[in-house]
């Protein structure tokens, strides 16, 4: 006898770490939110553009701050011609490649927006995913800080278009040139100090999380957390640490006072620092002229942004309302997007200066915020009307298909039951689990009479829980009734409208 064939092991279904499956509710909420953002960006005169998810690795450049992960924090592979390609880690680096490649055909300033998935090869954790969606707007070819000021004001308008009220958000603005001036003042200005500067940036970026004392440790020898893990610091001496702390703490009651404070902190002989302060002053003036200096847009020296390619103004959209984090602590929701000027990114391809500035919204994170505020999913799409299958002969099936088509032509979501139709109860059970508002029923008797039965599944569910005697049943809105076949679409639309009114009233 032949050997018994080995049974193949069953494949285990498992989602990769750091990735999520998205539900219909999440997808629709995202679509709703993205549509609102798009409306604001279009109002400002921006047009859409789309780039692929893969780029050649050298085109993306090594700008991620996460240096302790493989492939510099990106997912990479080799093409069949041995060229390295990577999944994009943001939407800005691919735009720079697109602009450079199509430079002669592009009208400058080039004002675009795009939404898309980006990928980070990072260690997954609570609220930290390897795939997430961003929505960006960029202006390429505009050297003046009015383009940066516009980005900040557009972000304020976007927050309000999404239902986030004034006072629950702030757009915070800083300038990397000012920070460079501080770096020069403490002796870490040259290319040989690039790694130290990056460590300083990371430390400042932790201000909200660890406070001034925690940042002071990270700027010095390092910081040990509650679990005993030690994070090596930037190794600055005490005087340099205090200079950096003075810089990030320079925020005043208004833009003018903050700028005065910065002039005291930044070296007077630093061309970079003085230029950056001048740019912040211009932004403050433009914001004030447009009326956005009422707490919506604020000069804040603690904003640094993690990516290394920023060269001038940087900005961040922060939500100020409280939420409970995964540890049960009450904290401010925090950043939902940011950006800045990246004048060197397109220039890498061009051999000539090409100024650019842009803003990126973290779509998934912002969607979480809007859910917390109850601003999403208010207009949920109703489940489809289900046309039941009572008879399976060809003529009846054609009639049911016609019913479905007539409903769809009238703009009503509808489907014909496509499971096993033997048990009618199972069809109603399916419709109920689907959340369907209405079932359409036509057996042989109704067919001969030229009628259909309309079953109000919402009312039926309510009645089954409330009706205790036949008198009450007869006095209520009937959960099932007969209408002429020629009138059934009109009657279904009336019923759906009545259900919608009931939901509003409830």
From TrEMBL:
EC number(s): the record gives 6.1.1.21
Enumerate the spans annotated as Aminoacyl-transfer RNA synthetases class-II family profile domain. 1-384
Q: So what does this thing catalyse?
A: tRNA(His) + L-histidine + ATP = L-histidyl-tRNA(His) + AMP + diphosphate + H(+)
Q: Which residues cross the membrane?
A: none
Residues that bind L-histidine, according to the entry?
A: 90-92, 120, 134, 138, 305, 309-310
Which GO-annotated molecular functions does the record name? ATP binding; histidine-tRNA ligase activity
Q: What is the similarity comment for this entry?
A: Belongs to the class-II aminoacyl-tRNA synthetase family.
Q: Know the name of this protein? A: Histidine--tRNA ligase
| Origin species | Hoeflea prorocentri
